[in-house]
Design a protein that fits this description.
With 346 residues, the chain is α/β, with parallel strands linked by helices. The protein is built from 16 helices and five strands. The chain folds into two domains: 184 residues, P-loop containing nucleotide triphosphate hydrolases (Rossmann fold, 3-Layer(aba) Sandwich), CATH 3.40.50; 115 residues, Zinc Finger, Delta Prime, domain 3 (Up-down Bundle). It is 51% helix and 7% strand. It starts with 6 loop residues before the first helix and ends with a helix. The structure holds zinc ion. Zinc ion (ZN) binds next to helix 3.
Length: 346
């Protein structure tokens, strides 16, 4: 396991190999390595010459197929949107689309749909190609829409014995209780800051101070923070920050102009962190996401009221729930920024 902070969970998951839970729910905060953990676990289960501790050997024919993404006894269930993004990325692990929209044509589904689950029933129904177990990875499991989750229940209820499921989610509460109750659950933790910074420095070659800033901006999640090592991601993030920090003095139209073309989920996510920091500073705590902007946060927070900031945070949460398909992205930006200006005006 490449992530030190997941080592205890990794050892525990490998130890469960013999206990034959046929479904395992991996949950924990976003950006800590859950997907990589789940992939490594699936590979370990499929490996035909596992190491003494149960981890995959990385050398057998099964490991070779797995690495190439064509092991016949493995299925990954992901939203069509994620699969297409990965294909566009050249399927390079760890590659991520930068936050700027643009190359998107038709909107692929962000749900895991019922036809995907039905296709799985056939896979589960037949014997494995290699005589070992079969593995189904569902990532993120909270993308299962209601019909798909229902269809999955049937498959989870009738384990053919040879198929093991791994479900991955940041939001276990978003899964139907009926699905959760059929899974053994394993919580993956957020790392301590120092461990995450050490990993970021080793991973990106950045200096410790940059790593610390990125980690804070990512709310402590190291894999999210790593995205800032990409100059395009970093530039987009800086642009969003400069724009938000300029409010309310910058006009709403000018600020909206700067954010136009950036994916709504991206700028809105940063805005929510900014407001969360304003709330913390207003309450006398230190900023969590943007410690390097403590001065500006303090000045803005003093001019505002706790009630106005709380109201703003709730309004932004409501916008975030509807952000996947904005009818008019520009109007969404202006709407959000007008609310920010109103809150900061006291
Ligand atoms: Zn192997």
């Amino acid at each position: 396991m490449n992530f030190d902070w997941l080592t205890p969970a990794w050892e525990s998951a490998l130890a469960q190999r013999r206990r034959q839970h046929h479904a395992l729910l991996l949950h924990g905060p976003a950006g800590i390595g859950k997907s990589a953990f789940a992939q490594a676990l699936a590979q370990a289960w499929l490996c035909e010459a596992p190491l003494a501790d149960g981890a995959a050997c990385g050398r057998c024919v099964a490991c070779g197929w797995f690495a190439q993404g064509n092991h016949p006894d493995f299925r990954l269930l992901a939203p069509a949107a994620a699969e297409e993004a990965e294909a566009a990325d050249g399927a390079e692990a760890g590659g991520r689309q930068p936050g700027r929209a643009g190359a998107k044509s038709a909107k692929p589904s962000r749900d895991i749909r019922i036809d995907q689950v039905r296709a799985l029933e056939r896979f589960v129904g037949v014997g494995g190609h290699r005589g070992g177990c079969k593995v189904v990875l569902i990532d993120p499991a909270d993308a299962l829409n209601a019909a798909a989750a229902n269809a999955l229940l049937k498959t989870l209820e009738e384990p053919s014995g040879a198929t093991r499921f791994v479900l991955v989610t940041d939001r276990p509460d978003a899964l139907p209780a009926t699905v959760r109750s059929r899974c053994a659950s394993l919580a993956l933790p957020m790392p301590q800051a120092e461990a995450a910074i050490a990993w970021l420095v080793a991973e990106t070659g950045a200096d410790e101070s940059s790593a610390r800033t990125w980690l804070a901006a990512a709310g402590g999640a190291p894999l999210r923070a790593r995205r800032f090592a990409d100059p395009a991601e970093s530039a987009t993030h800086r642009l969003i920050m400069e724009t938000l920090a300029g409010l309310p003095e910058t006009g709403v139209v000018q600020a909206a102009e700067a954010l136009t073309g950036i994916e709504a989920a991206v700028w809105l996510g940063v805005l929510q962190c900014w407001v969360a920091d304003l709330q913390r500073v207003r309450a006398g705590a230190g900023p969590r996401f943007f410690p390097e902007r403590a001065g500006r946060l303090g000045a803005l927070a003093r001019a505002s009221s706790p009630a106005a900031l709380d109201r703003l945070a709730m309004q932004l949460s409501a916008l975030a729930r509807a952000v996947d398909h904005p009818l008019n992205p520009r109007l969404l930006i202006e709407d959000a920024l007008l609310r920010v200006r109103a809150a900061l005006a006291g």
